[in-house]
Amino acid sequence: MSWGLAVVAAGLVGFQVAKMPVPRHAAESAAPLGVNVRDFGARGDGVTDDTEAIQAAINRVSAQGGGTILFPYAKAGYRIGKPGVETVDGRPCRAQLFIPFKPGHDKANIALVGEMPCALLYDYQVRRESQAYGPATSFGNMPRGNTFLFSTWEAPEERDPTARPWSILAAVEGDLYAGRFGCRQVSIRNLEFRVPLNTERLYPTTSAVNLQNAARVNVQDSQFCLDKNIGDDGLGASLQANPCHVVGLMTSGDQNDDQVLRNVAVQGFRYGFVLGEHVLADYLYVHNCEEGLVFHDSTHLSLVTFVVAQHNARIVTTTRDTLFGHPKGVCNVSFGGIDVEAGHGATPAVSALEYGVYDPENRLRGTLRWHAPWGLAEFPVEGGRNLRISQYPDE
């Protein structure tokens, strides 16, 4: 038999073995690899409230110690309409959907997965015709191919920066280490979370995803955004400065491990990403946030290889308060490259660049290189004395 035929035959044998019945004792000892939210009653028709069905799927996977929760593509999206809960079993939560904590479940490894990678670029900031930007441009409406969850519940306004944020999804607080972790790892792939924007208020009161109580976080090909475009041409009104402390994606708290973000976007929040240590981020897209990448502490090195920062008031910042309960510390972070569009002369005005780095306490330590392909080549800095900043390429 030729080598090629042997390979084919081996593949066929493997296929036949995979189809053989699993012995009863083996089936009983092995936990299922995951569940489908449709099997728990989720409709994905954009009208039915799928909160309880999705929560039931999360509870099942959590109880078995981990696995995948699959969200089949649904053109109209999965509506999350149930109000958020303050606590679960007496533990802080503040979310509509939650990763539970129970003694013995703290080692759960849970993945929420959609059918295909998300398209990231939306028409949030609308460029009006201007001398700086030329003819008005638009990136089109919401993409139709993303698998998305959207909330129709507006959270209460939370103006205390130290308080836990209200979110669509959160990990419930546990007992492990300083970060009070309640589960080992949460992964999100190929999913979009849309937060409601009240067009009378013109700022969101709900955060997208809060994973500060997950010890490890892995997010890929996903997006955290608002449910409406926010430029004047889209709404007839523009996104306003947010008095509420809301975040697109928050990763683990102190003493975490293994924070990996690849091809992830946030759009329209007061804080885009809130991050700590052990972060490896490769292609982050930050759009129309008042603060794009916010670090509370990073005793162990974090590495952000590439950021596209379009129309953010402050791109890289450090916390001033114990934001969301995170203690402040030294932030050892290196940024391989930040591609900057300042947003001056475009809507919404709240997103126009004020600072490339805002670090008044000089807690950032590392390197940062930036590049401005359009508009003014500017990167204002406040503080940041321990951060080596240079324009890319160095001149």
Task: Write up what this structure looks like.
The structure is a single chain. This protein is mostly beta strands and 395 residues long. The chain has a single domain, classed as 3 Solenoid (Pectate Lyase C-like). Helices cover 10% and strands 38% of the residues. It contains 4 helices and 24 strands. The strands form 2 sheets. Strands 1, 2, 3, 6, 7, 9, 10, 12, 14, 16, 18, 20, 22 and 24 form a 14-stranded parallel beta sheet that branches. Strand 1 (34-36), helix 3 (51-63) and strand 2 (66-71) form a beta-alpha-beta unit. The longest helix has 17 residues, at 3-19. The radius of gyration is 22 Å and the shape is globular. The termini are far apart. The model is unreliable at 1-31 and 125-140 (pLDDT under 50).
Low-pLDDT segments = 1-31, 125-140
* CATH architecture tag: 3 Solenoid
User: By helix and strand content, what is the structural category?
Assistant: mainly beta
> Number of helical segments?
4
- The oligomeric state of the chains shown is single chain
Shape: globular
Whole-number tally of structural domains:
1
Number of E-state strands = 24
The gyration radius over C-alpha positions equals 22 Å
Order of helices and strands: HHEHEEEEEEEEEEEHEEEEEEEEEEEE
Residues in helices, as a percent range: 10-25%
Largest sheet: 14 strands, parallel
The first-level CATH class is given as Mainly Beta
CATH topology: Pectate Lyase C-like
**Mean pLDDT metric:** 85
**What is the end-to-end distance?**
63 Å
Q: Beta-sheet strand percentage?
A: 35-45%
